[in-house]
Amino acid sequence: MAGGLPRSHARRAAVQALYQSLVNGQMPVKDGIDFITAENSDKMDVKYFTMLINGVAKDIETLDAELAFAVDRNLADIDPVESSVLRIAVYEFINRPEIPYRVVLNEAVELAKAFGGEKGHKYVNGVLDKMGSKLREVEYKAAKAGRAKK
User: Fold this and answer.
1) Contact 132, 93 (CB under 8 A)
2) Residue 133 — very low, low, confident or very high, per pLDDT cuts 50/70/90?
């Protein structure tokens, strides 16, 4: 993860807040307030963090329906860290088209490495690669074509 970037810090805190909400059954907004005070809010983009957790909470059914395209099991059976990372990334794929596909994918993989299980980042990468081909088709094909030329 690019060290010190406010949005990276926001994503990191959002994964923690969403994970905690899954484990504790609490509303992410309450957890979000806790994480803004717990994290160094001067290092993170607080508005982006709030948008992520509120957006994921509001759109969770849509996000999960989209993820069903690429996951190999029920989302409830996926590690809560990985499912939180996947939901944030799919939310960004859908709602933040100005953020390049590769940035969303790379940030998600780094978050899965930081917080997930030993091979969780590989699973996240595979799922998001499929999601990118569906949700960001033109950009995805361009990225694949660019890598093929190297």
Assistant:
1) yes
2) very high
Q: How far apart are the C-alpha atoms of 3 and 22, rounded to whole Å?
A: 27
4-29 tens-digit pLDDT: 589 998 999 899 888 888 887 776 66
What's the first-to-final CA gap in the chain, in angstroms?
Answer: 24
d(CA 71, CA 126): 9
DSSP 79: -
Q: Sketch out the chain's domains with CATH numbers.
A: 6-149 (1.10.940.10)
* CB atoms closer than 10 angstroms to residue 59: 17
Pairwise CA distance, residues 51 & 80, whole Å: 20
